[in-house]
């Protein structure tokens, strides 16, 4: 029971920190206003309205007694005094048919109070009143003899004016306090939002030029620690890349000397085999350098994805690659990294197949890129493994001596650094399909 209630509350509550904080601040103010309004309405307004209505009905009953008492002299004088001193307008209309009004408001507290007092004083079928036709007056009819008495009196005689003033004073300060709370909460949650955005950008591999902690002491402390962590990770990544790049670069010198010595070797068969091994080692070193360079800082730019694909495809034979690209697909990416990623995927497809098809389309919040080849494909159980660095398959896709198993790994790192996803599946061309999704 409690678990289901907790889930229900979690679903209806807002997810953002700002709106949750606003509820914490605004809810007590609103609840307090509702309680005060109920107490005021019940104990002050209703009681005041009841007392004023009872006093008014007593005055009206006195007038009615003046009309019904034949021995009472000075009838007109008393009526004139009522009209003058109590803002009454009294007249007698001779009409046998007495109709009750259909526009009485049963939901109005003022009407209910007046109806209750008139009923106790005159009975249920001897009166009728109208509180809606006139803005400031109430029309009352009381059955008398062969007609009825028609009395007009001000609404203020039974409706306390303090109710509107009270409603104004309790609403405006509450709204003012909530507006102040919104401004303060905006300033307090803004540093947290900035920290979250910076962490998201850093998680995507973007270069953060400057990050200034702000806000409350605890938020600034968290921001300082994040900045320190970011700098440590950046230094670590740079050191790793520089070390791998340095080792790969330094190995070129002994390989060059070996090639020169092989050129002078008289046993050509042996020299040919050793030369092939050295060339393979050079290709491996080139891929190591490529692997170490792809993480370097690059600014994010808004580019047309069609232009990026066109620039890549133009380097290949048009007969080998077919493209199906939607109209203008603008996206924020690091162009060189994406070019390297797509180049790796196209090279991988052409290494094992004869044809590659590239298609892209826009979804709700992503750009979907499909790269299909007609090669032998990859077993489904190997889909995860081929994303690992230096992993190679020596089964259905054969021995590819032009690489060391870094192409898909580099492509996977680049796409995930952009906040996207990459997956493998069976291609309609009976080869491998690489599905890339990039947010825009």
Structure description:
The chain is an alpha+beta fold and 440 residues long. It has three domains: 18-160, Beta-Lactamase (2-Layer Sandwich), CATH 3.30.450; 191-297, Orthogonal Bundle (Helix Hairpins), CATH 1.10.287.130; 300-439, Histidine kinase-like ATPase, C-terminal domain (Heat Shock Protein 90, 2-Layer Sandwich). Helices cover 55% and strands 15% of the residues. It has eleven helices and eleven strands. It has helices at residues 2-12, 17-68, 75-85, 109-122, 162-203, 217-250, 252-263, 268-293, 305-313, 335-352, 407-417, and strands at residues 89-93, 127-130, 137-144, 147-154, 301-304, 321-325, 330-333, 356-362, 366-373, 421-426, 432-439. Strands 6-8-9-11-10 form a five-stranded mixed sheet. A hairpin with a 2-residue loop joins strand 3 and strand 4 (147-154). Helix 6 (217-250) packs antiparallel against helix 8, helix 7 (252-263) packs antiparallel against helix 8 and helix 10 packs antiparallel against helix 11 (407-417). The longest helix has 52 residues, at 17-68. The radius of gyration is 44 Å and the shape is rod-shaped.
């Amino acid at each position: 029971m409690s678990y289901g209630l907790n889930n229900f509350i979690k679903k209806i509550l807002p997810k953002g920190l700002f709106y949750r904080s606003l509820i914490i601040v605004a809810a007590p103010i609103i609840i307090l206003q509702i309680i005060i309004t109920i107490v005021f309405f019940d104990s002050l307004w209703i009681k005041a309205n009841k007392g004023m209505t009872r006093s008014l009905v007593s005055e009206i009953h006195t007038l009615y007694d003046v009309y019904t008492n034949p021995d009472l002299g000075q009838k007109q004088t008393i009526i004139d005094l009522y009209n003058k001193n109590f803002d009454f307008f009294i007249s007698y209309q001779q009409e046998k048919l007495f109709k009750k009004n259909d526009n009485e408001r049963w939901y109005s507290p003022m009407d209910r109070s007046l109806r209750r007092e008139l009923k106790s004083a005159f009975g249920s079928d001897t009166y009728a009143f109208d509180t809606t036709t006139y803005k400031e007056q109430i029309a009352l009819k009381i059955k008398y003899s062969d007609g009825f008495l028609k009395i007009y009196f001000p609404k203020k005689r039974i409706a306390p004016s303090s109710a509107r003033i009270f409603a104004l004073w309790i609403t405006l300060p509450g709204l003012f306090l909530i507006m102040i709370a919104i401004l303060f909460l905006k300033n307090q949650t803004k540093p947290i939002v900035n920290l979250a955005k910076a962490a998201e950008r850093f998680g995507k591999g973007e270069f953060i030029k400057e990050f200034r902690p702000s806000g409350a002491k605890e938020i600034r402390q968290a921001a300082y620690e994040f900045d320190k962590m970011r700098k440590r990770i950046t230094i670590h990544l740079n050191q790793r890349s520089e070390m791998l790049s340095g080792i790969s670069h330094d190995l070129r010198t002994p390989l060059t000397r070996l090639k020169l010595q092989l050129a002078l070797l008289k046993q050509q068969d042996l020299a040919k085999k050793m030369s092939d091994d050295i060339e393979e080692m050079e290709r491996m070193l080139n891929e190591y350098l490529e692997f170490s360079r792809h993480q370097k800082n690059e600014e994010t730019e808004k580019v047309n994805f069609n232009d990026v694909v066109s620039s890549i495809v133009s380097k290949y034979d048009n007969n080998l690659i077919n493209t199906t690209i939607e109209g203008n697909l603008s996206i924020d990416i690091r162009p060189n990294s994406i070019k390297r990623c797509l180049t790796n995927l196209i090279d991988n497809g052409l290494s094992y197949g004869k044809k590659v098809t590239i298609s892209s389309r826009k979804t709700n919040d992503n750009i979907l890129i499909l790269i299909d080849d007609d090669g032998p494909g990859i077993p489904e159980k190997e889909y995860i493994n081929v994303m690992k660095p230096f992993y190679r398959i020596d089964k259905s896709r054969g021995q590819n001596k032009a690489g060391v198993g870094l192409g898909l790994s580099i492509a996977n790192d680049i796409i995930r650094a952009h906040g996207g996803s990459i997956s493998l599946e069976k291609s309609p061309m009976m080869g491998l399909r690489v599905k890339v999704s990039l947010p825009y």
